[in-house]
Every structure is written in structure tokens, then in C-alpha cells.
Amino acid sequence: MTLRELTEEFLLYLSAVRGLSENTVKGYGNDLLQLQEFLTPELDVQAITRENLMLCIGQLSKQRKSAATVNRFIAAVRTLFAYAAKLKYIEKNPSLEMKTVKLPKRVPNFMTTSEVNELCEEPVNDELLWKSRDHALFLMLYSSGCRASEIVSLKLTDFMDGGRSAIVTGKGNKQRKVYFAEESRKALAEYLKDRKKLLIDLKIEKIPAELFINLKGHPLTTGGLRYILNRYSGVEGTNRHVNPHAFRHTFATNMLGNGADVRIVQEMLGHSSISTTQRYTHITTEKLIDIYNKAHPHS
Questions:
Q1: Catalytic residue list contains 240
Q2: Do residues 262 and 256 touch, judged by C-beta distance below 8 A?
Q3: Where is each Tyr recombinase domain found (predicted)?
Q4: Does the annotation mark 179 as catalytic?
Q5: What pTM did the predictor assign?
Q6: Is 280 a catalytic residue?
Q7: Lowest pLDDT segment from 45-54, 73-82, 242-251
Q8: Which residue is catalytic, options 131, 133, 135, 147?
């Protein structure tokens, strides 16, 4: 079996059997495509050695790839060869001695209260694209702590409790309940009126199930969301570029900063490990120290 054939079968397994999301499978595919480029696609998997794989790591280092990128590549390769070994496509797993590199500790980026409020109101103040949609989109991202992929996949049928909450499907097809504040629900109601009118004007026969759509009446993609946010956070808007995940970071930081239990926030964010959620407690601690240093007369 060639490396190309093994990769194709493995990606199909991830999608059809393990039920991983399209984005996750695509991520594995990108890393394993790079492996094929390093080793050639038609190489027999039985012939791949530990030394071959270590040379691949060396190539990534030469390309100045980040530690996170290298670790993701290693994880993908390990999983591929574990699959091959399980099905006895190989006699010896050459990836067993591949060690991940140490990651620098990174504090998640977040917006201050004034910054997130300004960005959420930017579609109303400067209508760059679609005022009601973008206003609702930003408020709902901030209100719920949803990932970009979760918010664009949200369907009208996912809502519960009169729009106060919804069921979203996150990483690993895990479902959880998220909540929407009154301000975001009001913005959503305005958007739904415009959405209905647009679909009538465009004479769309098959109404999209997804809540958020583009101006052509098609479901909004994560790429589309990034484009919208780039416009409003760029020079035409707040001139402070942020990515969609900044809303999620800000949601978590504010929840913990205002006294929410870390395990409740973990559940709201859909984190499998509490250590991921605890990164945000460092932010709130640093924020409190900064406030203390600025306010206390003896500091």
C-alpha cells in the first residue's frame, strides 16, 4: 500500500467511521499531504522509517513553522501510522518515537468591554455590508461564546426557549447548549425580517436551513465570517483587527472575571479539559493586579 492510498483510506475512516467534522478532517488532510510531499505519495508505507519522519520534522523547522504547527503535524502522522498498524498494513510503527515540541505559554487574545461593545455596534454605525445580519452575528458570537464553525452551522431549528438558547454541535460532534442575551435576541429578530425579504426578492426556492446567509442567499461560511469581521475591524471600522475567536475569548474572560464558576464556563465553551478553560483565569488575575497597581495609593 502506498502512502497516498493509506492517507485516502484514513481520511475516509475519520469522516465516515469516527464522524469527525469536515474542518478536522481537512486539517488532517493538509498535514498528511505535506507528509506525502516530503516523502513522495507512491512510497510503500512498509518502507517508511523513523529517520524519514524525523527528516520531515527537520524540513518543517527549516521552514520556520511554529511549535503548534509542528505538533499538529506530528499528531496527524502518529494517528495515521497507529491506524496502519492496527489494520496490520505495517509491521512496525515508525512514528512511536516522534516527540512533540514544547509550546510557549500563550494567553488568549481578548477585547476589553468598550472594544467589544464598539465592534458589536460597528455594523449599525457604519453599514459596510449587511447591517442587521452583521449586528446580530457579532452580538450572538459575544453572547454565546460560540466558535466560528458553530455559529455559521447554527440552524433555525436549533433554537429553544423562545430564542434564549440553542443546541450547537462543536468539536468531535459534541452537542451543548448555548445562551443568547436579550440584546442579541432583539438584533436577531431584526435580521430575520431582512433575511426573509432577501430570500423572497432573490426568489430562492430552497430556503437554507442555516440561520446566517450571505447576500446571495447561500449559507454563510467561516471564510465569509472572517471577511465580514475583517471589514468591520479594519481601517473602515474600528481599525483594531480581531479574528472570530476573539469574541469567544472575551466571553470566557468576562464570565470568569464576573464570578462565574470555571466548570460552568467550561461547559458553556464545550472544552473537554478544564485546563483549557483555566487559561482565562490568568487573564482575569492579571487584569485585577493591573487595576490594583493603578488604583492603590501604595502600589
A1: no
A2: yes
A3: 106-293
A4: no
A5: 0.61
A6: yes
A7: 242-251
A8: 147
Phi, psi (rounded to 5 degrees) for 175: -100, 145
From the list 135, 195, 248, 249, the catalytic residue is 248
Give the H or E element holding residue 179.
strand 175-179
| Residue 109 neighbours by CB distance under 10 Å | 13
Q: Identify which has the larger pLDDT, 157 or 99.
A: 157
CB neighbours of residue 251 within 10 Å = 24
Choosing from 72, 186, 245, 287, the catalytic residue is: 245
From the list 155, 171, 282, 287, the catalytic residue is 171
List CB contacts of 206: < 8 A, sequence separation 6 or more.
none
Contact 155, 211 (CB under 8 A): yes
pLDDT at 284 over 60: no
Q: Which amino acid is at 218?
A: H
Mean pLDDT on 198-206: 90
At 16-31, the pLDDT tens digits run 888 887 888 898 999 9
Of 28, 142, 191, 280, which one is the catalytic site residue?
Answer: 280
Annotated active-site residue 263? The verdict is: no
Q: What value does the mean pLDDT of the chain take?
A: 84
Q: What pLDDT score does 4 carry?
A: 93
Q: What are phi and psi of 274, to 5 degrees?
A: -70, -25
For residue 152 the three cell numbers come to 455559521
More confident residue, 212 or 286: 212
Q: Is 87 helix (H, G, I), strand (E, B) or coil?
A: coil
Catalytic site includes residue 92: no
Between 207-221, 237-251, 259-273, the lowest mean confidence (pLDDT) is in 259-273
- Hey, where are the domains in the chain? 3-86, 113-293
- Residue 41: what are its φ and ψ, rounded to 5°? -65, -30
Residue 236 pLDDT > 70 = yes
Q: Does domain 113-293 have CATH number 1.10.630.10?
A: no
